[in-house]
Amino acid sequence: MKIGVIGGGAVGLLISAYLSRKHDITLYTKTEEQAISVRTEGIHVIGPNPWTAYVKSRADVLYKEEILIIAVKQYSLPSLFGNLKQLPPKKIVFVQNGITHIGRMKELAQHELYIGVVEHGALKKSPNTVHHTGIGKIRISPYDGGGAREFIDQLNTSDPLFLIQYEEDWEPVVLKKLAANAVINPLTALFRMPNGHIVSNPYVAKLAKKLFHEVCDVLEINDKDDLWEYIESIAIKTKNNRSSMLSDIEHHKKTEIDSILGDLIQKGKEKGAHTCTMEFLYNAIKGLENREER
Q1: Residue at which a domain ends, from 167, 190, 212
Q2: Does residue 240 sit in the same domain as residue 203?
Q3: Within this chain, do residues 158 and 191 fall inside the same structural domain, yes or no?
Q4: Residues 265-289: tens digit of each pLDDT
């Protein structure tokens, strides 16, 4: 299949590289410099067995492929939506953190829409190099229940390092990932520490548990024990990894705090839920962003 991957960050590079083993991939980047780097040198994937994938790459907004995977961060979506609205009907898969984009999907009614959750760990090391730091799955669900399972099965490369799994209902999958991001990302970014410290450092662990209960109350999670075990397992499994939000702070980039904690705080206020810990962390990360910008 001919697939366009929009976004040349860590996730976009990783998806482009692995899907190129089976599909015809075009990576759409923000800059021509990155597009040239990818076209001429390929995408270098760092891992247990480093390898290089060769894909097409361009910095325009042609988006002629019948299948598009949107791998930009939440804050880049508003400008992209304008272009997507003008396109003829396509299959479009969104793989963002958070839930902000889901509320706008009704604007793209002509398209067949899918919601994806990326469980892999990935860090962008250079314009055409990505470090595959954690093996997981990409879980994809039809947005409105009308998507074809066959399409998602066809995407799958059958590579055990990069499995794509069909999910009937996107909501529990997305909320589970949102809860994990809401607990792990802000704390690791604030304290400048790898993921494992969320459980190994007793003081940070207390904050994580307090934050976790606020998140669960806002999302109306009933099985808190199961969700905490999931978050704890991620922190332990990726104990030496640095979260994407920490990487953004370290590289003086804008974070996704608005689409992770910002949305949860707003939902909490609407429900009259306690959001004190979330508000503290939200303001702390915004403060770090502002300091880095200066």
Answers
A1: 167
A2: yes
A3: no
A4: 999 999 999 999 999 999 999 999 9
User: Is 259 found in the same domain as 151?
Assistant: no
The neighbouring-strand residues paired with 129 are 44, 126
Q: Of 13, 51, 46, which Cα lies nearest the Cα of 29?
A: 13
Contacts of 221 (CB under 8 A, 6+ apart): 175, 179, 215, 227
Whole-number Å distance between alpha carbons of 57 and 27: 5
Cα–Cα distance, 57 to 146 (Å, whole number): 31
Both 50 and 159 in one domain: the answer is: yes
133 and 194 share a domain? no
Active site amino acids: 177
Q: Which two tokens stand for residue 158?
A: 């059958």
Q: What does the alpha-carbon distance between residue 278 and residue 192 come to, in Å, rounded to a whole number? A: 18
Domain of residue 68: give its range.
Answer: 2-167
Q: Identify the CATH number of the domain in which residue 157 sits.
A: 3.40.50.720
Report pLDDT digits (tens) over 110-132.
999 999 999 999 999 999 999 99
Number of domains in the chain: 2
| Alpha helices, H only, 129-252 | 149-155, 170-191, 197-200, 202-219, 224-237, 244-250
pLDDT digits (tens, 9 = 90+) for 48-58: 899 999 999 99
> In the structure encoding, which two tokens stand for residue 100, read together?
């902000």
pLDDT exceeds 70 at position 188? yes
